[in-house]
Amino acid sequence: MKKLILILLLLPAFCVAQDSIYVRETINTLTSKALWGRGYTRDGMKKAGAFIASEYQKIGLKPMGSSYLQTFNFPVNTFPGKMSVELNGKKLIPGKDFIVNNESTGLKGKFTLSKTDTLNYESNQGLKVTLKDKLTWSVATETTPNLTIQLNKKSFNYIPKDIKTDIENQFVPNFQAANICGFVKGTRKPDSLLIITAHYDHLGGMGSETYFPGANDNAAGVATLLSLAKYYAANPQPYSIGFICFAAEEAGLIGSHYFTENPLIPLSNIKFLLNLDLVGTGASGMTVVNASVYPKAFAQLNELNNAHQYIIKINPRGKAANSDHYFFTEKGVPAFFIYTQGGPSAYHDIFDQPESLPLTEYNDLFKLIVGFNQKQME
């Protein structure tokens, strides 16, 4: 009996050691050029979803519905083609020297800029230029009639005067996406569920040559989710353990909102949900959103962490609509959103790359999640 208990205690550590390589390989796949930022051009999001569904099948997860995919549609503005800007005769590099505002329309031509204030310029043909300390991109579900270009202040030391643009946008009114949903059936209480979630979409591409890899946001979260799925598939628990990779988080939490309005499982059966987003670092600790909303669960998390010295510091945060946990909380589902801190600061830019992602706390976060879920089943 003592030997059996020892084996059970050592299982999470063994699985973590085995899956560190798998996590790295998964992040490399999700951030690859072939998946083009897991976004809205070159079928990036569709390819990423297909990859995750194939991993679910290999792992042995059961679909929540008739398949792993829960499909839905929404509008999105995309930039699939030309993305050229010349400033004062100098050709600029997309993503590094400039980005376009995500809701912008395309525009081709030569323009003279007039200064409106310290950081902003405009032409009389619907073109605006603004200077930024840091370039961060996002996703828009609508368009404006103008083109706005953000310039990296660090890229040049001259006054913007003449600008030449050749930029194409394409508004897609019914872009199809899918949440990827699976579970491991519980051994004693299969109708009770613990859910682990992570969004797999990112920003996609800006033009035909520039894409946003999204290593920390959120390839790391998906890879951690898949490694946990492997562990639970090999070690079924009394409760069912569900795994949902959401699409369209970057477009405004659209995938998770769709799921909560069209649930594949009764939301009342979810005993707790852990949402993983931006978990590829951890040198400075981690933050838990909804800590003050569920103080008992947060105390359990801290008790586990203090006993095993997993994470250097766990910071509490209140309710926030900043990731896919939010609409579940609004429906009465207890949920935490976990993100790590410290290390590389790349976020929503072209520099969020796998080579610079340290995965500082992957091992400890894995063990903390397994321990926390165990507490929820006691």
TrEMBL record:
Keywords: Signal. Residues 1-17 form the signal peptide. Residues 179-369 form the Peptidase M28 domain. One of its GO terms (molecular function) is metalloexopeptidase activity. GO terms for biological process: proteolysis. SUPFAM superfamilies: Zn-dependent exopeptidases. It holds the Pfam family Peptidase_M28. PANTHER family: METALLOPEPTIDASE M28 FAMILY MEMBER, PEPTIDASE M28 DOMAIN-CONTAINING PROTEIN. This is Peptidase family M28.
